[in-house]
Amino acid sequence: MPESVQIPGKVSIRTLNSRFRGPFSLYQPEFTTATVQPAAIANVVNTIRQIWLRANGARCYSGGGSIREQNFCTYKDITWSVDALQPAVYVACNGASSTATPEFPTLASGTDQPTLVEHPVNLTNVSFESAASSITWVDLSGQELIRASVGALVTPIIEQTLDRSTYACTIDAQWANVTIESSFLGLPYIVNGVPPNWYQPQDDSTGRYHGRHVKISPAWASFVNPSLITAQNTSSSPFDILLAATTSSDGESQYMPDKIEAIIAVLLADRMARVGADATFQGTITNINQVLQINDGQLFTAPPSDSQYHRLTFQTAVTGFAYGLRGTTGIITSTLVSIIILLCYVAIAVTHVYLSHNGGM
Predict the structure, then answer these.
(1) CA 158, CA 248: separation in Å to the nearest integer?
(2) Domain boundaries, the chain
(3) pLDDT tens by residue, 171-216
(4) Distance in angstroms (rounded) separating the CA atoms of residues 179 and 37
């Protein structure tokens, strides 16, 4: 299964990164996990990229700019980035023998197998979906399930006729601090970003990342897996379509808990990332050249104080090779001294050659 896929949108292409448990993964993390950039922030990053390239190109190729204005005309790479929050979803599933008191994983760290705890389910209070769906969302609470954002009882459609077990899944959804960026050397419109140590500690001294835990109601979670009408005019759902794609032609299904974890993690992360997806820039562009300011540029006018908006600060990093007198804070003293010493050496060398030549005459 792919661990990195691109999700196209109106203005940008987001990168969904995932790590799966099971034999179809290069890694064996504690839990299946997925993370993807919010659609609104990804659109912002790519829009800033387009504005910056247009403004910089006008300076470089118009011929009217000064040397100071043209110091971005040659470069090795450019990155445009915004610090924001993005969803990180962790999922673990267990084959449950009973739908009344299923055993849910606790998501406790440091164990080879997920620790299980029984949690009674009142089916009259859970959020049922359409007949095509195989997920029933459950409100999990209790001290042993403190990391649970929401639970899910999953009976795969392909197994219902075989009287197979229902799977109990625990989901930990978080908002993680991430630097979301786009690179000049990367393909156009593609945006990426992942939390540090988001799926596995790098060594014993660093723990797995923990962001802002989110509690999800079963009613909201039901929107993750809406009912769909397929091209064959049959009722289905995103979960069922993805699960069917992982099943062999003879109907044999292996590694079912791992597949269910992967699908739920991907669907829920993408649903969280689409919250506020229609949000757009507020205010108007003051001066397009503000985007090229080395410090404290303000591209947009501030919207009215009574409007609801969130202020974003973007950063542009230009990578390359340069040698000059000026830096971001003014003249570089060490460079100036080096140039003066070099000029003195050249003057002494030229004088020596001149005197030696005249003396030889």
Answers:
(1) 11
(2) 4-44+83-273, 326-360
(3) 999 999 999 999 988 888 899 999 888 876 545 555 667 788 999 9
(4) 10
